[in-house]
Design goal:
Order of helices and strands of chain A: EHEEEEHHHHEHEEEEHEEEHEEEHEEH
Largest interface: A-B, 115 and 102 residues
Distance between the termini of chain A: 33 Å
Number of helices of chain B: 11
Shape of chain B: elongated
Structural class of chain A: alpha/beta
Oligomer: heterodimer
Radius of gyration of chain B: 26 Å
Shape of chain A: globular
Number of helices of chain A: 10
Strand content of chain A: 15-25%
Order of helices and strands of chain B: HHHHHHHHHHH
Number of strands of chain A: 18
Largest sheet of chain A: 7 strands, mixed
Helix content of chain B: 40-55%
Largest sheet of chain B: none
Distance between the termini of chain B: 47 Å
Radius of gyration of chain A: 24 Å
Amino acid sequence: MQIKESSKMYDVIIVGSGAGGGMATKVLADAGLKIAVVEAGPYFDPAAPEQRTQLKWPYESPRRGASNRRPFGDFDSAYGGWDIEGEPYTQKDDTRFDWFRSRMLGGRTNHWGRISLRFGERDFKHKSYDGHGDDWPIGYEDVKPYYDKVDKLIGVFGSKENFENEPNGFFLPPPKPRLHELFYIKGARKSNIPVIPSRMSMLTKKINDDRGICFYCGQCSRACSVYADFSSGTCLIFPAQKNGGQIDLFTNAMVREVTTNTEGKATGVSYINKEDRKEYKLKGRVVVLAASACSSARILLNSKSEQHPNGLGNSSDHVGKYLHDSTGASRSAFIPELMNRDTYNEDGVGGMHVYTPWWGDNKKLNFPRGYHIEVWGGLGMPSYGFGFNPNDLNRFFNQKVGGYGNSLRSDIKKYYGSTIGMAGRGESIAMKDNYCEIDPTTVDAFGIPVLRFNYKWSEYEVNQAKHMNDTFEEIVHNMGGTLLQDAPSKESNYGLENPGRIIHEVGTTRMGNDPATSVVNKFQQLHDVDNVFIVDAGPFVSQADKNPTWTILALSWRASDYIIEQLKQQNI
Amino acid sequence: MDRRDSLKSMFLGSLGTGLMLSGCTTDIAPPDPQIAKAADNYFGRTPEELKLIEELNEDQFFNTHEMETLETLCALILPANENYGSATDAGVPAFIEFIVKDMPYYQTPIRGGLMWLDHTANTKFNAEFKETPEGNQKIILDSIAYPNPDKPGWEQPLEIQFFTTMRNLTMTGYYTSKMGLEDLGYKGNQPNIWDGVPEEVLQKHGVSYDPEWIKKCINQDERGVIAEWDEDGNLLT
């Protein structure tokens, strides 16, 4: 059978509907362009009764919310995970890269932590500070106007702190700290470690008439049915449609490659419809890749032609290189002063109300980049696993562990809400030797060659993870608490998580002024092909110790403005 | 209607039923009762996930004797008190029946553990575990309910590991049930307005809010007023 080609000519075809794709859809559709959005997973609307998990009770799931089917539990909104049936990836040598994919409208923005941090001036020019990696070809001043616009369009709570390398923004007021967060503040400040209100994209205050206000169920990972937190579908794509945008949404459509003509220019994309398992083609004047850093690299590498024998946009051989994820290490602790709590509704927003931005001076440390600390704890809703080892903490009081009978009820109440957790999320150095590439030996269920990962942490990341653990121990000591795990050993890289695990993978199509050492220019346009753009985290030169979403959004808006300008001037 | 049109109308349909909160109202508009009824069974499952659950529910793992033994055991692990029923009253045996099908690695240790209980009861008291008087049942449980704290779990004897598993599943099954959540005093999972830790709780735990910090936080009386800023990012509303 022939590949079915649509006769419709789109102005822009956008591959992927997460943060980058959603923002491009909004900006380009609002400008009146004809848009096709091609998403590999199904349609998703957290307000649709048959898809909603928000405000469901643990007993509504027969497995009580356990995480054996969905990786973050039955009520988490991500359709996908580290392992997806029919969509394998492989590892080179002893690499252990974990690749999380969400196949659904809105992608990973549906379940993400909503931590919305701007990169600071230093984050764009880190090589100039410490000699590692590379500077971005743009600086904070280029992105600031877009961060400002993203803050106002989408909404983020936080506070103006004038903190070094943590720029102020247009913030909604933050929620008050929870009880365990007050203990954390006290413990951290005792060691002169700063704590400030979190910066997260939930609406603590109204920003327009289309979106609801946070009602504090603490379930942002389930995606909000009143659209009070940021998801790409609910906050960008739906409003763009409502605004009369000319948007055709193709769901369950897995893009195979970008098609090109004899001049080497992109003509559209080909995709596999997961429902009938046939291949289709779409035609467009411009192709915008927003499939996620690794997926977009994969599409480019699989888009081989006579004009682009090494894959599209890959004359520099840099596609897939400089892959890097945030570092992560975490510990938890028992705080006796938090025992015997009165219960009240402490759900709050989904995630932490306070956090620690990077405070250290790397010139005095044995690792060049910083990390921030996230905090958890409190009177959360029980799900599968709650009540396991119900009186294990008795060991701290030389009391008997185990038993049965009604004494277990009082054990549960005594310890409910008395544990606290801390997680470090740090910046790794982007390295050319950490990359993804096409594995020519392995195919997925759609006939598309898959990615193979090659990744090693350097001693900088390992040293940073050790520092995280030392910091956690100090803070817990200050809180009068006891760590629940032994200090991780050097052999275990001090608890440093596998790369990919923090789900902040970036850098695979990095931007630069030199076409020999970068894939896209500073407007995220392929050096090799002027009508292909990349608006996910692939163009990141370095990652900062910040969660990448807010920067993806700002840069996607900036690139979309450039596309509109270039189309107007008939340059592409 | 072609595929794209159906997607568009699906989009419009969902916007129509979108649940919007405004002002300080915390009530959620009731969705279409027909859809809501179906959604009760879905809890947001994809069709594939729903099918898996239906398939698991079609099988029965434990036989009648094993189910009855589970009922006895769960009620011994967490019996009724003056306010709340036992773990068995809260439906824990049925939860365990589902879990062992969903997490098959539990099957042999639990099935074998139940046989261990019967064998031990038969040897000591000449009756199966569920038939022997409660005093005898407790004599058996006392011998397996207290793991050696100096040994990791996997080094404990099989019957102690079995009991630890049963206690874990019983406790988690109970505290994720409607009865258990109420017993625990969990107050969340409902629309509300978070305005900080109650004063008496702060006092009880010896902490207080820093006034400088609180100044930055949301004034919940103004949450419904649309945000506006000056050009330096200072909130005006």
